[in-house]
Amino acid sequence: MSAKLETLSQNLQQHFGDKLKSLKLALGELTIEVSAADYLAVMTDLRDQATLGFEELIDLCGVDYSAFGDGAWAGARYAVVTHLLSVTNNWRLRVRVFADDNEFPSVDTVTGVWSSANWFEREAFDLYGIAFVGHDDLRRILTDYGFIGHPFRKDFPISGHVEMRYDPDQARVIYQPVTIEPRENTPRIVREDTYGDAAHG
Questions:
Q1: What is the pLDDT of residues 158-181, one digit of tens each?
Q2: What's the rounded mean pLDDT across residues 120-139?
């Protein structure tokens, strides 16, 4: 671990103590995990404490762990992962928080801490169904307003539930059940019997 990351790690441990569920170094970057109950307070302190100084939220995304490790994952299914940057201290941090309820996943919004979280949280809500409590404008951002479900969830069907098409008779766009039949495409490779055999040139 570099001296800079060692300093950041010590600052995090000193400031948050037991609020850190884990602190790991991987690929030259620190990742901390906090509980949903502590999430907003920790994120606010990460911005406001001079020894941490994370002025920028550069990414926020949802994660569905239901099929992680070939389905051997035990624990909460949905997480929010945030990437923070401190320009002043020249270091980065990844923060992960799991939603407590798999049936209705939710965590606090951090739009009041970093306004850049707005569209990221809307995207995580749209694609994973993770609700951000306190968000001022939590609505779909990528899918259609009438879209059913959340397409990045591991149990969402590849073909979806409904399809949209223009109906010339009704002169409008309509929704209907999916007409695409599920299939598996396997590319056909044609090679000579002696392919790769050095003795046959």
A1: 777 788 889 999 999 888 887 777
A2: 96
Give the residue from 127, 152, 124 showing the smallest Cα distance to 66: 152
Tally of residues, the chain = 201
DSSP states along the chain: --HHHHHHHHHHHHHHGGGEEEEEEETTEEEEEE-TTTHHHHHHHHHH-TTT---EEEEEEEEE-TTTTTTT--S-SEEEEEEEEETTTTEEEEEEEE-S-SSS-EEE--TTT-TTHHHHHHHHHHHH--EEET-TT---SSS-TT--S-TTSTTS-TT-SEEEEEETTTTEEEEEE--PPP----------TTTT-GGG-
Domains of the chain plus CATH, in order, are 3-154 (3.30.460.80)
